[in-house]
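Suppose you are handed a protein chain with no further information: no name, no annotation, nothing but its sequence. What can you learn? This example shows the usual starting point.
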Amino acid sequence: MSVLVSEIDSGIFEVRLNRPRKLNAIAYETIMDLDKVFREVLPSHLSNLKVVILTSSDTRSFTAGLDLTCPRVTETIFSNPSNLNAALRATQLKRIIDQMQAPILRIASFPRPIICAINGICFGLGVDIASACDIRIASDTARFSVREIKIGICADLGALYFLPRICRNDSWVREICYSGRIFNSNEALSIGGFISEIVPSLTLEERARELARSIACNPSIALEGTKKNLNKSIRNRMEECFDYVSVWNSAKLQDTETITDCVGNLIKSKL
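A reasonable first move is to predict its three-dimensional structure. Written in structure tokens, the prediction is:
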């Protein structure tokens, strides 16, 4: 399975992205697995669940982002069947984008705190996932990029909604989103405030568990109420904003030639 779930301590569950041979690049199936974890698996343990750690099974990479070789992605986003007019293609794209947004929205609204422990590469969809979590800590080897713009699309799975609400520097947020450049954990902490802590790569897992234990000692009802009220204060209109960007990309992603060229250039650059 591309997403692993385990209870590692009393009240503490760990969710791991598990495609190490692909640097945890996220295929369509991985998104669906992640959705199932937060829709069915974890809610079934809610009576004794206090906190979730979201991480990966590979110290080299939290995730390299969307798997651009995944058939469902290439067939939907990068091809333009002659038998589909613009309206039908936009409807098809909207449906796929909505399906891929679902686990991000579930993570953001999950009734328990989620700690994202980021090791290595965190590109594109990785930033979306991390942004939806409550707490983000990263290793000293972590590298980040809002990569979607490099393939000719705007980030439609959460980054453009969450980053302006998380980070204290609006100019910096816009710069990294417009450029798609890579930045390290020091910059993510000191300039953007995207993460709250940097730890050595080898101790990231233990630090995440230590942090989780400090949260898990508190009552579930208080944790749930605190998260709901924090979300209420800064995340109003979340679903509306997600829907807007889904509509935008489903309409604008008709120019598959430009997108394909961008993807080709990105693969050639190996970045």
